[in-house]
Amino acid sequence: MTVPIGLASPDEIPACARLIAEALRNDPVVGQVVRGDRDRVKRLTALYTAALRTGALPRGVIDVARAEPGGPIIGVAAWEGPHRSAEVWRHLLEVARYLRAIGLRHLPAALRALGGFGDHRPKDPHWYLADIAVGPKARGLGVGSALLLYRLAAIDAVGAPAYLEATTPASRHLYERHGFEAAGAIDLAPGVSGTAMIRSTADRV
Fold it and tell me: Would 104 be classed as within a structural domain?
């Protein structure tokens, strides 16, 4: 299957966020950040809308796959670039969405989980795959791999490393097939953990 891939426009952020939310609604690691089943997809959509607007949109890229040129989005990959900046004002603009998604009562637990992810991020400049998701009708058609290969080719061209967190054994195997290696476990709760994964430039330069 040939998958047209290009950049998302700012007005496509809600659609991208919704696709990611639906794909990760039952992910156990995501469940440590956004808890409970009530309005879950709606709250996750708010979370990912805020995350895309404060992360990949202003300081990275949001790649989208479509079934045909100009068609609906069937896959999303959000990458944050190596030049990270605080830009606190962007986060302040999205506070309401973050709180609506997480809930004030669960905020301390969510911050601890997010801190666990942050502790494993490489200190040196790198590309970070914040989120990748494929719509239900396109799963198993190679869309996720196409998105990865598309951006990794550009990253390799500039000799940069890439980093991500795998949240399931299946996603870990997918990333391993594309050159990522496990760099440590991210323990979030009893029976719930992710895997920090790095793709070095050592054998690509």
Answer: yes
